[in-house]
Design goal:
Blueprint lengths: L32 E9 L4 H4 L4 E6 L12 H4 L1 H4 L4 E3 L1 H13 L5 E4 L5 H13 L6 E5 L5 H7 L5 E4 L6 H8 L4 H14 L4 E7 L5 H14 L9 E6 L20 H14 L4 E3 L29 E6 L4
Parallel strand pairs: 2-4, 4-5, 5-6, 6-7, 7-8, 8-9
Antiparallel strand pairs: 1-2, 1-3, 1-10
Helix pairs in contact: 4-5, 9-10
């Protein structure tokens, strides 16, 4: 399966580089799988968090270029060179088993679109070693159908973003003008897999409510939550936070207002979207991760034991 890195067309960018020889395309990653951390995370949607927490595994690198990425330390190349460590399929499997032994209710793989072949092998190895809990795929949805097929028998639930359906916003804020069409196709592909569960996530961008309305209208027109036999939900997120980076493409440098939040709630009612979750407005940055810490979610020095319990970190020996 690693031969797919030889002329890499895994994601919609189709860079065509030979990652097996160390060549790097847009994601700036070779064929090696690099991880930043793994933890028991309790800040996801209720079905994902459950009682024991979600076993999140953060993958280094990314095939998008979001200007306000909360995980910028591991997604942006300049920092990603150090914020992450290469792991074998055997070590990946060991991390999954450790999360399960610590009480995780699932394995939640975060932003691994550019490393699907290696992750697929790691999941197979974990199952061979006795992993019993479900595997979740937590991604931007900037993916190809062919790549998702590799995961179709390995992933039990999908947590894709649907960031925007506006190509201009996609180009400006995510560095991918084709994101809207690619993400819609990816979500439909995920829904086509039998027995899988999906939560479509959408982050409200301050000052860009029409983008949110367009996303909600597409979901409503698709009848996504009425025609999938309780296999689909929507999750509206308000946690946009201006991160400490300099980027002239940044959107409004503020949090989502109460008025914007209430407007989105009104649209959900008007469009008949009832299945899912809506995050209360978040207007602080204390929750932002710092992947230089063994527990990234104690970035501000506060007690984050209730939010996250570390299991593995890239600096561990």
């Amino acid at each position: 399966m690693t031969s797919l890195y030889e002329h890499c067309n895994l994601c919609p960018r189709r860079c065509g580089v030979n990652r097996l020889r160390g060549e790097r395309g847009y994601c700036r990653e070779t064929a090696a799988l690099r991880l930043a951390c793994a933890s028991i995370h309790r800040g996801e949607e209720p079905p994902v968090t459950g009682q024991g927490g979600s076993g999140t595994i953060f993958v280094s690198g990314c095939n998008l270029g979001c200007t306000f990425c909360q995980n910028w330390q591991i997604s942006r190349y300049a920092d990603a060179e150090t914020m992450g460590r290469e792991v074998s399929s055997e070590e990946f499997a060991a991390i999954c088993i450790a999360l399960e032994e610590k009480g995780a209710e699932n394995i939640n793989i975060v932003t691994g679109s550019h490393t699907i072949p290696a992750i697929a092998e790691g999941i197979d190895r974990a199952r061979e070693r006795g992993l019993k809990i479900p595997v979740l795929w937590n991604s931007s949805a900037y993916e190809t159908g062919e790549a998702l097929e590799i995961l179709s028998t390995k992933v039990d639930a999908w947590l894709p973003d649907l960031k925007t359906l506006d190509p201009a916003l996609a180009s400006r804020y995510f560095n991918a003008a084709d994101y809207p069409e690619r993400a819609k196709a990816a979500i439909l592909k995920m829904l086509s897999f039998p027995y899988s569960f999906i939560i479509v996530r959408h982050l409200i961008l301050p000052g860009h409510l029409e983008s949110t309305r367009e996303v909600l209208q597409w979901l409503a027109h698709l009848n996504l939550f009425k025609n999938t036999k309780n296999r689909a939900m929507v999750s509206i997120m308000t946690q946009f936070t201006p991160v400490n980076v300099t980027d002239l493409r940044m959107p409004y440098m503020r949090y989502v207002t109460q008025e914007e939040y209430e407007q989105v709630l009104d649209w959900l009612g008007e469009l008949g979207i009832e299945e899912g979750y809506c995050q209360e407005p978040v207007r602080n940055s204390g929750w932002l991760p710092d992947f230089g810490r063994r527990n990234p979610f104690s970035a501000r020095g506060d007690d984050a034991s209730e939010l996250s319990s570390p299991v593995w970190h890239w600096e561990d020996t």
